[in-house]
Write a sequence for this structure.
């Protein structure tokens, strides 16, 4: 495996790990958002399960064993109510946007298009959950202190 293929595989594995965490996180979100936002949480949960499953296939096709899901994940903050669940959903999507931005950088062809689509979907979901957006989703958290 050459260096470019190794970078792509690392990014695929990182995206898979992030999708595992998102599926877990949306389990928490769905249990706290209430009836009005329940369908939106369920749609995101289903979308992330589908992305996770596709990434498992991609990693296997790259000749590697897919990173396994953890038994549990530490949430970035307590989620006692619907407002916190909405913040968690936005945070999950922001983190995914960053991981998919890396995969866009490290992949080519169809895989790059798929990663760009996943980045766009995460940015749209983040904007829906948070009520706002950023100019370059997935890149803001990677900016240095002087950027």
């Amino acid at each position: 495996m050459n260096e470019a293929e190794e970078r792509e595989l690392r990014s695929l594995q990182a995206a898979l790990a992030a999708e595992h965490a998102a599926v877990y996180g949306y389990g928490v979100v769905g249990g706290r958002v209430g009836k009005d936002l329940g369908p939106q949480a369920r749609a995101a949960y289903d979308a992330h399960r589908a992305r996770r499953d596709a990434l498992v296939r991609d990693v296997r096709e790259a000749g590697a064993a897919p990173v396994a899901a953890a038994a549990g994940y530490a949430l970035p903050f307590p989620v006692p109510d619907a407002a916190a669940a909405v913040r968690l959903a936005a945070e999950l999507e922001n983190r995914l946007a960053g991981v998919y931005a890396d995969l866009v950088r490290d992949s080519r062809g169809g895989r790059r298009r798929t990663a760009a689509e996943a980045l766009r979907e995460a940015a749209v979901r983040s904007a829906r959950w948070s009520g706002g957006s950023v100019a370059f989703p997935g890149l803001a958290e990677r900016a240095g202190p002087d950027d």
User: Anything to note?
Assistant: The mean pLDDT is 91. The CA atoms of residues 87 and 130 lie 7 Å apart. The helical segments are 3-32, 38-61, 82-106, 109-130.
